[in-house]
C-alpha cells in the first residue's frame, strides 16, 4: 500500500479489472478494512473524555517527575472500539480455521469450559483470600491433580508451574535436589536431537552441561549411542526426552531407555507436551519416567498460553515425589489446606521439597477448563482424543507424502503430527518459507517451519483431534495446489507471496535485528 500526497490510499497487489489495478480512496478492500496505527488515528492534543483537573499534591517521585507530555494519542470510545475490532478481523484464530502448527496443538476450546471458568466462585476469587473461603477451588485443584496422576500413572503432581517450560524447570530442579540430597555432583544432562528445543535450555539454566544424543535413521533416539554414553555415565544426572518426539514419532524403546538411565544412576525427564497423542492409551509412569510436565492447553483444551495464562503441571515418580515444590493442596478429613511453609516437617511426602517456584498455587482458570474437559470426555472420550489426533495426522501424512518429501514416512505411522522436508523443491530455487507465504494467500496459517532441526527445511503439521475430515481435505488440497504450482510455475511468483494478505511479505531478518520499538511521528 502507498499513500499519495492527497492522502489517497492505493491498494497494493489487489486483483486487476480490465488490466488496471483496483484502487480505493480508503485503502479498504470491501470489508477487509485498512487500519492505521492508533498514533495515526488520534492526536495528543485531543481526548475522548473530560477529566477534572488533577489536584496539586506533594510529589513522591523523588525527582523522577515527567517533564513533557507522555505523547499518547487521544481517541473517542467509538474510535477505540472500531480500531481493535478492525484489527481483530485481520487476525487468524482457531475460531476461523485450522491451525496446522506442529508441536503447538492449537485446537478448539469447548465453550462449556469457558462457561465453567466464568462461574463467580472460580472467576472472582483472590489468591490472598482466607483458605476457608476457597474450599471449592482447592477441592477442584485436588480433583484435577487426582486425574492427572491417574492418567499418567504417577504418584505425585506439582500444580503450580505456569507453562510447559516452567514445568521443565520444576522437574529438573527436583532432579537436582534429589542428587544434592544424595551427595551426588552429577552435572551432565543428555538431550536427544529429537527433543523439544526448550529441553537443553532448561538444563543449562539449571546449571547442567548439555550433551546431544543422536537420532537413528528412523527418527528415534539412537539407543546404542545412549547406552554407550551411559556406560561411562557417573556424571550423568538425567536424560531429557520428548515422547512422542518432535518428529511426531513414538519412542518404542522408552522402557529400555529408562532402565538404562536408572542403572547408570540418573533420572528420566519426559517432555509431556505431546501427551495429547497418547492420553488414555499410555501411562508414562509405566514406562519408567521420573518427571513429566503436561501442557494443559495441548492435551486438555485450555487456551494456548502464549506467555499469558498458561499452566504446566508436573507429575513425579515415587523417587522424586519427596522433592516436589511447594505449595501443594492437602486434604485432612473434609478440609483442604494449602501447604506453603518451606519446612522439612510439613509433609512426609514433601520432606525434601526444593522449595517454592511461584507466589501462589497456579492458574485457576486453566484448572477449571482442564477439569471440565476431562469430566466431559471421560475415560473413553480421552482415549478417543488420542486416537483421533493420531488418525488425523496419519491422514495428512498419507495424503501428502507422494508429493511432499516425508523423511520418516516409511518408518511406520506417525503420532500427532506429520513431518515433511523441502527436498522436493530442490532445483526450483524455492524454499519452505516461500511455500508457507503462499499458503497465507489460501487463507491458512502456515505450519511450523524449519523445526525440528534434524530435518532440512522442515514442515511440521499437527491437525489435532478437533478437525473434521472436510477441514483436513481443504488444507491438503491447498498444500497440494501450492506445491504443484511451485514445481511448474515461475519461481518469482512465489518470492512475492503473500499477495492477498493485509500486508505483504516482511523483511523478517531486518525486523528482528533492527526492530522499531517506539513511535516516531
Automatic annotation (TrEMBL):
Region described as Disordered: 1-21
Ranges that cross the membrane: none
Function: The glycine cleavage system catalyzes the degradation of glycine. The P protein binds the alpha-amino group of glycine through its pyridoxal phosphate cofactor; CO(2) is released and the remaining methylamine moiety is then transferred to the lipoamide cofactor of the H protein.
EC number(s) stated in the UniProt entry for this protein: 1.4.4.2
One Gene Ontology cellular component annotation held by this UniProt entry: cytosol
Domain Glycine dehydrogenase C-terminal, chain residue ranges per copy: 387-485
GO biological process, one term: glycine decarboxylation via glycine cleavage system
A GO molecular function held by the record: glycine dehydrogenase (decarboxylating) activity
Superkingdom of source: Bacteria
Domain Aminotransferase class V: 182-305
InterPro entries per UniProt: Aminotrans_V_dom (IPR000192), GDC-P_C (IPR049316), GDC_P (IPR020581), PyrdxlP-dep_Trfase (IPR015424), PyrdxlP-dep_Trfase_major (IPR015421), PyrdxlP-dep_Trfase_small (IPR015422)
Protein's name according to its UniProt entry: glycine dehydrogenase (aminomethyl-transferring)
Record's catalysed reaction(s): N(6)-[(R)-lipoyl]-L-lysyl-[glycine-cleavage complex H protein] + glycine + H(+) = N(6)-[(R)-S(8)-aminomethyldihydrolipoyl]-L-lysyl-[glycine-cleavage complex H protein] + CO2
Cited NCBIfam families: PRK04366.1
Record's keyword annotation contains Protein transport: no
Broad enzyme group: oxidoreductase
Keywords, ordered alphabetically: Oxidoreductase, Pyridoxal phosphate
Lineage: Bacteria, Pseudomonadati, Pseudomonadota, Alphaproteobacteria, Sphingomonadales
